[in-house]
TrEMBL record:
InterPro entries, per the entry: ABM_dom (IPR007138), AI-2_Isomerase_LsrG (IPR050744), Dimeric_a/b-barrel (IPR011008)
Pfam (any one): ABM
Any GO molecular function: monooxygenase activity
Spans traversing the lipid bilayer: none
Name by which UniProt lists this protein: Antibiotic biosynthesis monooxygenase
Species, as recorded: Bradyrhizobium jicamae
Keywords: Monooxygenase, Oxidoreductase
Length: 112
C-alpha cells in the first residue's frame, strides 16, 4: 500500500482552521485485506481532490494487515455529506469495499 496522506497541504495548514474529524476503523473479512488495499489505492486520490476534505490519512495495521485506520478532516458537516454523496465514494467505498468488511466503526470529533 502506498503512503497515504494529503496531497499538497501541510498538517498544520489543515488543522489550523478547525473542522470535523472522522475516525474510522475497518477490519477486512478473511482473505480480503489486499483487495481492500487495492480499492483504497484508487479511492484516495479522488478523496484528496475533494474540495471539502482538508486531510486524509489511511493506515494499515502492521501486526494485523486486515485492519485499516482512517483519519479524515473535513471543513464541516456539509463537506462530509458531499464526500459521502460523491460518485467516487459510492463506487469505491459503498459498492466495492464495504461488502468486504467484517467490521466497520466510525466516530466524529470537533477539533479543539
Amino acid at each position: 500500500m502506498k503512503h497515504y496522506a494529503m496531497s499538497t497541504r501541510t498538517i498544520s495548514d489543515a488543522i489550523n482552521t478547525g473542522g470535523l474529524l472522522v475516525v474510522a476503523q475497518w477490519e477486512a473479512k478473511e482473505g480480503q485485506a489486499d483487495r481492500i488495499a487495492e480499492i483504497l489505492d484508487r479511492f484516495l486520490p479522488e478523496a484528496q481532490k475533494d474540495p471539502g476534505a482538508k486531510l486524509f490519512l489511511i493506515g494499515r495495521g502492521k501486526d494485523n494487515p486486515a485492519q485499516f485506520l482512517f483519519y479524515e478532516l473535513f471543513q464541516d458537516e456539509a463537506a462530509l455529506k458531499a464526500h459521502q454523496d460523491s460518485a467516487y465514494f459510492k463506487t469505491y467505498i459503498a459498492e466495492q469495499a464495504l461488502p468486504l468488511l467484517a467490521k466497520r466503526e466510525r466516530a466524529q470529533y470537533a477539533l479543539i
